[in-house]
Amino acid sequence: MTGERQAWLIRGAQPLGGEATDLLLVDGLIAAVGPGLTAPPGAQVLDATGLVALPGLVDLHAHLREPGREDAETVQTGSEAAALGGFTAVHAMANTDPVADTAGVVEQIWRLGRQAGLCDVRPVGAVTAGLDGSRLAELGAMADSAARVRVFSDDGRCVSDAVLMRRALEYVKAFDGVIAQHAQEPRLTEGAQVNEGEISGLLGLTGWPAVAEEAIIARDCLLAAHVGSALHVCHVSTAGSVEIIRWAKSKGWRVTAEVTPHHLLLTDELAASYDPVYKVNPPLRTQTDVDALRAGLADGTIDCVATDHAPHPMEDKETEWQAAAFGMTGLETALRVVHAAMVQTGLLDWAGVADRMSARPAAIGRLDGSGSLDGGGSLDGGSLDAGGAPLHGRPLEPGSPANLVLYDPAVTAAVDPAGHASRSRNSPFAGMMLPGQVVATFLRGTPTVLDGKLAR
Ligand SMILES: [Zn+2]
Ligand SMILES: [Zn+2]
Hints:
Structural class: alpha/beta
Bound molecules: zinc ion
Oligomer: single chain
């Protein structure tokens, strides 16, 4: 965006984990891919021997907390965390204070993202005004705003009123939007603290039944089919939810879904520690659920990984379980967790990771150019679509925007939240040995991360 673009020659990287080759980045685009490329005059050279190159990651679901809870996170610190995690685009959920339910608020968040300049911050618009679940927010005005909102969600709360959900699904068809549902039947989860099952009984905490999630997903799939609109299911957490989504997709309905890194790796047995770092919405489930989520992500039933990065200040987490806030940070560990849960287990290769963490979430967020008239556009040298929105999730090929991450799969290290850029420290992976490290991230040809550290 600044105009001071450099050329970079990345030597010996392995695109999608394949054969080592060189990538030349010029003027924000991938100019060439192939072995033995020559560095043009003035180009900077980066030795990427042994590093996997992936297209820049896209997160459909993060809480950046600004405006309103800058003690937990800001768009700046959240963008830093995203870049360090290999992300080049992040969707910022609407449950801020004020709520992102008007053109003014989404434009404010979008501008803060541009000022930070480390990744494309895509505001999610609220479905209902004030997230109060009683009347629709200004969906059209947010879609038409400079922020060009395409994803709408009351995340944190469920749009439980079936009539409102139907109206929202109908409304967003006009601009090819999508409603992202936080599927939680409110009456079935009153006072719920942990997954309903053996562990909730053991701890004497109110259980959170799987059916509270599954019932809403089933209803919303039917509603989306009925009105011919697009539904996205946030943070799928149960085996039954995977089955319902598999069924809806078999019907050809426009239903997509995400799973979080923590639901791919952790189970409710961790809650037995009573450590609220493991308190999250939806709750950690059983190993059977984890296995079904992994299988669903592997076979494409679940389209993508989304972090649900939910930073909280220490005082809101380091308290007794029942009083603690729900949520975990995730931007800086997502790729490493997916590496452990999906790649090391043989369920996905790196091409699969690129699909589930870049191409598919970009398509769901309408960032892949498929919604624009010319199918990709050429404004700003090819890094924006015809409507001026940034392009993400494109293959690592000449002509694509130079959004990419270089990842070292060979290292293993303990997660240390003290070193994270996020303003909050509530990582459930703290102290856990995880594989891999993000070495570099490029946004439109400019490094945001080099040598594993912020580049500026
Ligand atoms: Zn949620
Ligand atoms: Zn969330």
